[in-house]
Amino acid sequence: TLQAKMSRPVQARRLEGMDKNIWVEFVQLAATYSKVNLGQGFPDFPAPDFLTEALRRALGGGNHMLHQYTRAFGHPPLVKVLAQFFEKLLGRDLDPMTNVMVTVGAYQALFCCFQALVDEGDEVIIIEPFFDCYEPMVKMAGGTPVFVPLRPNPPKDGKLMSSADWQLDPAELASKFSERTKAIVLNSPNNPLGKVFSRGELGLIAELCVKHDVLCISDEVYEWLVYDGKQHIRIASLQGMWDRTVIIGSAGKTFSATGWKVGWAVGPDRLLQHLRTVHQNSVYHCATIAQEAVAQGFQRELMLYGKPESYFVQLPKELQQKRDWLVQSLDSVGMKPIIPEGTYFLVADISQFKSDVPDVPSSDEPYDSRFAKWMVKNKGLAAIPLSAFYSEAHKNNYTNFIRFCFAKEEATLKAASDILQKWKQEKTS
Amino acid sequence: MFLASRNFCCCGIKLRTDLLSRSIKHSTSATMPFRHKNARRIEGLDSNMWAEFTKVAADPSIVNLGQGFPDIPPPSYVKEELAKVAAVDRLNQYTRGSGHPSLVKALSQVYEKVCGRKIDPLTDILVTVGAYGSLFSTIQALIEEGDEVIIIEPFYNCYEPMVKMAGAKPVFIPLRCKNDGNSASSAEWVLDPAELANKFNSKTKAIILNTPHNPIGKVFTLEELQVIADLCIKHDTLCISDEVYEWLVYKGHKHIKIATLPGMWERTVTIGSAGKTYSVTGWKLGWSIGPEYLIKHLQVVHQNTLYTCPTPLQEALAQAFWMDYKRMDDPDCYFYSLSRELESKRDRMAQLLKEAGLEPIIPDGGYFMIVDVSTLNVDLSDVDEKQPYDYKFVKWMIASKKLSAIPVSAFCGLETKKQFEKYIRFCFIKKDSTLDAAEVILKNWNKQ
């Protein structure tokens, strides 16, 4: 039916080029075709009991004012316990009222950073591959994204690559900093590769930030998901970095409850005050009761910090096993996984399976995207093409990789393994 | 930083390195010239009068009739639905970005009934973080530098900074009292049609309408909406219609959706709020409803700002909506029962204020009431702050009477503040004991 419209063009220019969104398409495909969904990043196992219990307690506690507005910049019990936690982790005093702000997921914290600190003409360095929202958010703020790639340096002994083998070239990184550079976005542990930046690598970035007086937006949502005894290092704790860094975190990733949409920004008041201005003029308040329950979750973790019963100890232990299972499943059929040091994602090289999906040189869709679509439709296994995490200009740089999420029940991972085994058998016969 | 790049003829590299290391040391100290200013879009938008007044009113000995939130409990079935949802695993993970499927379906059913037209749950609705989030998404999606946006004064105070943050120019027009200052009802506050027409020009991108109106409580009549609609159509302008108090309309009045007027559906985004509908302001869920070709741009903004709203709250809200949808023809439906409950609170509030010698303006809708306090002749001229009279009055009232309200000039553009500085706003969606406590204060007002 013909819909009546206004005769003048309606949308604001800030939305230019932003309407495409890979998730809409791939989530739809997974919903329609997948038997095993290792695509979008969320756990299919339940959130921990202590968290859902905390919500039930808050609901049953008779304080019906938990259904009304709380403090706009963060529910007091939550900002207090976050300040306590991060004081420990950063080794510095934090004021819950000025150094912490609660947001609707880490996503909204990122949005506040770009809107607060990026102006037209500012450049923002983004390390590829990147969580795909960084680019449109920089553009919506009028900024210019400047990309620098992690480059794979495969081990000479033919062993499986690790996410640690993907590295920045120091000279190349330095060349990206200019007079117009306002900020660099760091994501460690990194989605999609699972890379956990080393102290040396962070030091390199820190030195450049200090030298060029650049801000660091540090997306650390997977901070607790680090494997093989590795350590997550917070760039804000490096020399000269606290004053210029905003650290972003997520209850969704920390507590396996992505649907709660509680996140936070931690940093110096001088930067956070500007995030507060954006926040108060965009969403203002975040949901009270979710914040109340997350606060209780953190209070439990504060008491159990470092102990074996701590969720922050148990979750990475469990996920490491799942990682190893998936690595094994993929390797045994000839898909080459890049072993992630952190996060709940892993990227695998599907070169040996390319014969199933012929190349179409005239197509402007990246190969891995076509492969992933074919795979979900024909094998019922959902994954995300690595090109989704690259800028337009670089989408065809790495055409043979897809990303799997392994934050899944054993049964799901077993079912994925069965699909892969069957697929391999079909190829060899 | 520039020190590092200067060339010194004799000492060359070593001096450059020394300067570089000194500049690095410098940057770790807080006194370093810091070029990390805020982005221009938020320049001057940092002030927040709510922060000031909510902090002061947080003292439990103060009877808080200021900030607009209920201290009455939400209906029990709403709380129960959330408790049920907490037990369902998959409801703790991400849902659909533009709105949880069961919620957008429920909203489409409710509003199809109200509007008398088909509403597609997937394309005509966006769920946001409160109506606040809907206002932001709408303005970011459709308003930009070079645009003008008409705002009716007094206005819910976020409209102005949101329009400015989008780079556009707010154009104000005040509601004026018909009877030249002596008004007993919100209906007497009206727009001058000629004055309104003059505000429209080729740059006017949108007008923001708020009905029922905060703070006055005015419920725009069909005739008044028609005047606005005619101008929107004539000038091909958008209408952003903030209808968060849509169910709170009192006897003798009817809430009319401007989007249902001829020629208006295609140019209107209508905003609603779970917080105001179900007395759960802390759930922060709202929605925008309109034609696909407008809503799709709001959806793009939303997917680049926070992507999804919390799942469990959306599911619980959907269940509550289904329950009330089924009884929309029944007077026990919460949409109507809340309004009846509030009408008696409104009448009580008005009575209390009259007994204190005040002349309240009786609202036809919403849960706020404004009152002219100049008749009390409280002399605050010795309070030497440059603040408007109503700010000073509210602060004085909090300190000396232990009763809080909100100054109405906070809801005005710079040029209109003087017109409204004798009014303060009371919120009456409060439990009986709160109103009892207010009664004691108001009865004893003149005794101190």
Structural overview:
The complex is a heterodimer of chains A (429) and B (448). With 429 residues, chain A is of the alpha/beta class. Chain A folds into 2 domains: 13-46 and 311-428, Aspartate Aminotransferase, domain 1 (Alpha-Beta Complex); 49-304, Type I PLP-dependent aspartate aminotransferase-like (Major domain) (Aspartate Aminotransferase, domain 2, 3-Layer(aba) Sandwich). Chain A contains 13 helices and 15 strands. Chain A has a 7-stranded mixed β-sheet, sandwiched between helices. In chain A, strands 11-12-15-14 form a 4-stranded antiparallel β-sheet, with helices on one face. Chain A has a two-stranded parallel ribbon with strand order 1-13. Chain A starts with 21 loop residues before the first helix and ends with a helix. Chain B is of the alpha/beta class. Chain B has 2 domains: 48-72 and 333-444, Aspartate Aminotransferase, domain 1 (Alpha-Beta Complex); 76-326, Type I PLP-dependent aspartate aminotransferase-like (Major domain) (Aspartate Aminotransferase, domain 2). Chain B has helices spanning 12-27, 49-57, 76-85, 101-115, 130-142, 159-165, 193-199, 222-234, 274-277, 292-303, 311-326, 334-355, 389-401, 417-420, 432-443, and strands spanning 63-64, 125-128, 148-153, 169-174, 176-177, 189-190, 204-210, 238-242, 268-273, 286-289, 359-361, 368-372, 403-404, 406-407, 423-427. A 7-stranded mixed β-sheet of chain B has the order 2-10-9-8-7-3-4, sandwiched between helices. In chain B, β7 (204-210), α8 and β8 (238-242) form a beta-alpha-beta unit.
